[in-house]
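#lab-general

N.A. 3:47 PM
ok so I finally got the sequence cleaned up, no stray characters, all 175 residues accounted for. can someone with queue access submit it? mine expired

B.Y. 3:52 PM
send it over

N.A. 3:53 PM
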Amino acid sequence: MNRFYIEKDAEETTKLLASLHNTARSSRTHMARQLLSTGLYAGQESIMELLAAQDGQTLGQLAAALGVKPPTVTKSVTRLQEQEFVERRASGTDARQIHVWLTEKGSALLEQMNRAIRDAEARAFNGIKKKERKQLARILARIDANLNGPVQEPKPKSKKKSSGKKKKKSAGDES
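B.Y. 4:20 PM
back already:
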């Protein structure tokens, strides 16, 4: 599509979404760098946080909570297990289910992980007032809802209301 024909508002929206995408990428990259100091890879902190809140969840529960497919969680849990941060145990009631538990090493890592996350957040929001952060949170939540909700037809542009006054006809307009 030729950029010259895109409406000004649409072009601004495109720039905003590109900026949002770039900011999210920068945030993930910075967070990944911070987490490497703990021995974690990006994404693993989410699993660790879920287990810290409720240890012994199944792979399916973790996947549902993260909004990802079970194979994605299985791969991450396998890495965490290789690093000795978590362990898998068979369910006591259903042999088909595997539960994931934090190890002592994993529990000890939580404070270091949280410190790395807080450092990344502090850098990201440096110089941004609390009121602005709240406003940004509301806007991002709305964008997320718009993207994850049902598809809606765009609202038609409103036509300008007439003032009720009739145009005067010029002498050449009469037929």
